[in-house]
Amino acid sequence: MPGDILKKRKIAVLGARSVGKSSLVVQFIENHFVEGYYPTIESTFSKSINYKGVEYDCDIIDTAGQDEYSILNSKHAIGIHGYVLVYSVTSRNSFNMIEIVYDKLVNFCGMSQIPCVIVGAKTDLQQSRNRQVAPDEGEKLASVKHAAWVETSAKNNVNVGKVFELCLAEIEKRAPGAGAEPPAGRCIIM
Ligand SMILES: Nc1nc2c(ncn2[C@@H]2O[C@H](COP(=O)(O)OP(=O)(O)OP(=O)(O)O)[C@@H](O)[C@H]2O)c(=O)[nH]1
């Protein structure tokens, strides 16, 4: 049965520096929160994710923080099935970076949209520091970009698993034949 075949999916996590990309990935993979800040060069993690009864063998690529002048690394666009674009709800600049990174990706891929989830991270800090990005701004940007959107706290483990479920949902709804059973006796594209 097609549902029994392990499907490989590559997900890249991008966004400005220090927005919490690594913390989100580490919380998801290793179930703990990293308090200190250790700038990432690049790390790849593997995890099997069950989504709608199908087991997906996922590579999650945690990338170095970007700024508006960063050149998109082709490794983060070629062979990637879906994207997690992270901003911090306490940083307007990091929110502005989402559109810049998104536009670089669609230009590079030559597509009008990409499977993507936009993540507003560090919601636990909204009380102590000023929240700079309102939830409806995140939601609106996501709707313009045909992306999913969610707010998270890696520290309190809020919505961390949901990020990757939403990403798989975005990938699968654009997959060839999505929503339809593959015709019997034909090849299935993995
Ligand atoms: N309070 C709080 N702090 C967080 C959260 N997520 C990350 N941090 C802190 O924010 C800082 C940066 O987190 P990282 O996960 O290293 O950020 P990053 O985006 O991977 O950073 P780069 O590797 O530079 O791109 C660290 O001190 C984390 O402990 C969160 O949900 N809540």
UniProtKB/TrEMBL annotation:
Under InterPro entries, the record lists: P-loop_NTPase, Small_GTP-bd, Small_GTPase, Small_GTPase_Ras-type
Q: Which UniProt keywords apply?
A: GTP-binding, Hydrolase, Lipoprotein, Magnesium, Membrane, Metal-binding, Methylation, Nucleotide-binding, Prenylation
Where's it mainly located? membrane
Location comes to: Cell membrane
Q: What's one GO-annotated cellular component?
A: plasma membrane
Q: Which Gene3D superfamilies match?
A: P-loop containing nucleotide triphosphate hydrolases
Q: Which domain of life is it from?
A: Eukaryota
User: Its catalytic activity?
Assistant: GTP + H2O = GDP + phosphate + H(+)
Q: Which GO terms describe its biological process?
A: signal transduction
What molecular function terms (GO) are annotated for this protein? Answer: GTP binding; GTPase activity; metal ion binding
Q: How is it placed in the membrane, per its record?
A: Lipid-anchor
> So what family is this one in?
Belongs to the small GTPase superfamily. Rheb family.
Q: What is this protein called?
A: Uncharacterized protein
What organism is recorded for this protein?
Answer: Jaapia argillacea MUCL 33604
